[in-house]
Design brief:
Number of strands: 26
Helix content: under 10%
Radius of gyration: 14 Å
Structural class: mainly beta
Strand order of the largest sheet: 1-5-9-13-17-21-25
Shape: globular
Protein name: Right handed beta helix domain-containing protein
Strand content: over 45%
Oligomer: single chain
InterPro entries: Pectin_lyas_fold, Pectin_lyase_fold/virulence
Number of helices: 0
Largest sheet: 7 strands, parallel
Order of helices and strands: EEEEEEEEEEEEEEEEEEEEEEEEEE
């Protein structure tokens, strides 16, 4: 099943504030939160210690979902596939993180912290201590990625890109 903690599909707008999602399990994707065909504003939330048997230990978005995580923390989540903290599945899915903390997440198939097929926008974020035996300890990006005033450090990989792994054709723009 998807969405161990919260499952959201075909909801025009969802707002989560000051929620704690801890210790959830998903036999598929999105152990903390699964979001499909929806716009989600997640503010001041803690998504911790969740485990997905596939992708998105903390948060999983697909089907053109637009997900904004603001002032939130994604800590110690695990995914057996990609995106220990967050997984953006599909080029139509957009991930926006503002003033958020992504730390100690792990994924077996890339993107210990964040894995994104679509647009990824990080502003004033910290992505630390992500791990993967594959590529992209902090970030694994397959499309456009914008990083502003953010810290990406102490991430570990066996493959390539301890901090950021960018596939051919993807672009990464960093400022400040």
């Amino acid at each position: 099943t998807d969405g161990g903690g919260i499952y959201i599909i075909h909801v025009p707008t969802v707002v989560l504030e000051a929620a704690l999602l801890r210790g959830n399990l998903a036999t598929r994707n999105g152990a903390g939160i699964y979001i499909e065909y929806s716009v989600a504003q997640i503010t001041d939330c803690k998504v911790e210690d969740n485990v997905a048997s596939a992708s998105g230990g903390g948060v999983f978005g697909t089907g053109g979902a637009i997900i904004t995580l603001e002032g939130s923390s994604l800590v110690d989540n695990q995914a057996a596939a990609g995106g220990g903290g967050v997984y953006g599945d599909s080029t139509l899915t957009k991930l926006n993180l503002r003033g958020s903390f992504v730390s100690g997440n792990a994924a077996s198939s890339g993107g210990g912290g964040i894995y994104s097929d679509g647009l990824l926008d990080l502003d004033r974020c910290m992505v630390t201590n992500g791990t993967t035996p594959s590529d992209g300890g902090g970030l694994y990006v397959r499309s456009d990625c914008f990083v502003n005033a953010s810290v990406i450090q102490h991430n570990r990989v066996v493959g390539n890109g301890g901090g950021i792994y960018s596939e051919q054709g993807a672009s990464v723009t960093a400022s400040k």
